[in-house]
Design goal:
Rossmann fold
């Protein structure tokens, strides 16, 4: 499909590509169950100890990720899945790997999913998760936030909410393949769907579930339209062959225009959220290490 793709990578990309196009035929409950089929525990998962907790007035499920490599600091991770699929379980291995590489305690939340809990339920739950971390003795300058896909958009929405409420900001944030435009106006949505597992039909289904009749240009739903001034240092990663590549490049430019410190990389010929497949893709593992190095450096600068 692309010059740099070997048989291993193309097999993975095409498996995801064809599954994603058929997944929308399934009832949402089955789509959610199927999402766990891609789980592949690695030594990182086996080396973690997980401590379930409940956060906020709604008693939302969350978990602490403890491991031997951790030093002072917490990584709050917000998973992707179009705001209607995904969970701590589907992302457990990646959160374990990223928190270990960052050398901090991990913290993840099963924020409420749409359409049962539409916008802004996910933003509200992310805020409660962040407050829970701070309430348990972790100062904001020892906290970093990360997320991929919809979780990347949610990470930015959380930062915007914190700023607007006048609450303390984390030391930094990282977004991987962020979905920041629920109107899907990006120039790469259609051309890259022959390579990627995301496509306009799937994105439209996710957006409809999440925002319903609400204005899709609301900055907390589509951070592309936000005033990003006052946000902490930000890392943005995306793949050059993914449908949401233009979401990443546009949010990079918008953040820079508003004075945000931004570190960014667009990885040629990589698909959406390829970091999650780092256990079988060397490129994903390398990019994950770069995310961890950025977050670790920002924590060290704040200490």
């Amino acid at each position: 499909m692309l010059p740099s793709w070997d048989a291993r990578y193309e097999t993975l990309a095409m498996l995801l590509h064809h599954y994603a196009r058929r997944s929308t035929w399934l009832p949402l409950s089955l789509q959610r169950k199927a999402a766990t089929a891609f789980l592949r525990p690695t030594p990182a998962t086996r080396q973690c100890q997980f401590r379930p907790v409940r956060v906020g007035p709604g008693s939302i499920a969350a978990e602490w990720f403890h491991h031997d490599q951790e030093s002072e600091g917490v990584l709050l991770y917000l998973h992707g899945g179009g705001y209607s699929i995904g969970s701590i379980d589907t992302h457990r291995d990646f959160i374990a790997r990223l928190s270990q590489k960052t050398r901090v305690t991990g913290f993840a939340v099963d924020y409420r999913l749409a359409p049962e809990h539409p916008f802004p339920a996910a933003v509200d739950d992310a805020l409660e998760a962040y407050r829970h971390v701070l309430a348990h003795g972790h100062p904001p300058d020892r906290v970093v936030i990360a997320g991929e896909s919809a979780g990347g958009g949610l990470t930015l929405a959380l930062l915007l909410r914190l700023r607007d409420l006048g609450e303390a900001m984390p030391a930094a944030a990282a977004v991987i393949s962020p979905w920041v435009d629920l109107e899907m106006t990006g120039s790469t949505v259609d051309p890259n769907t022959k390579y990627d597992f995301l496509n306009r039909k799937t994105l439209e289904a996710y957006a409809r579930r999440y925002v319903g009749d609400h204005q899709r240009r609301d900055p907390l739903a589509s951070p592309l339209h936000a005033d990003m001034s006052g946000l902490p240092p930000l890392l943005v990663h995306a793949g050059g062959a993914e449908a949401l590549c233009a979401d990443a490049t546009r949010i990079i430019e918008r953040a820079k225009e508003h004075g945000v410190e931004v570190v960014s990389t667009i990885y040629p010929e990589m698909i959406h959220a390829f970091h999650l497949f780092g256990d079988i893709l060397p490129e994903g593992e390398k990019a994950t290490a770069e995310v961890a190095d950025f977050l670790r450096a920002k924590l060290d600068e704040a200490s």
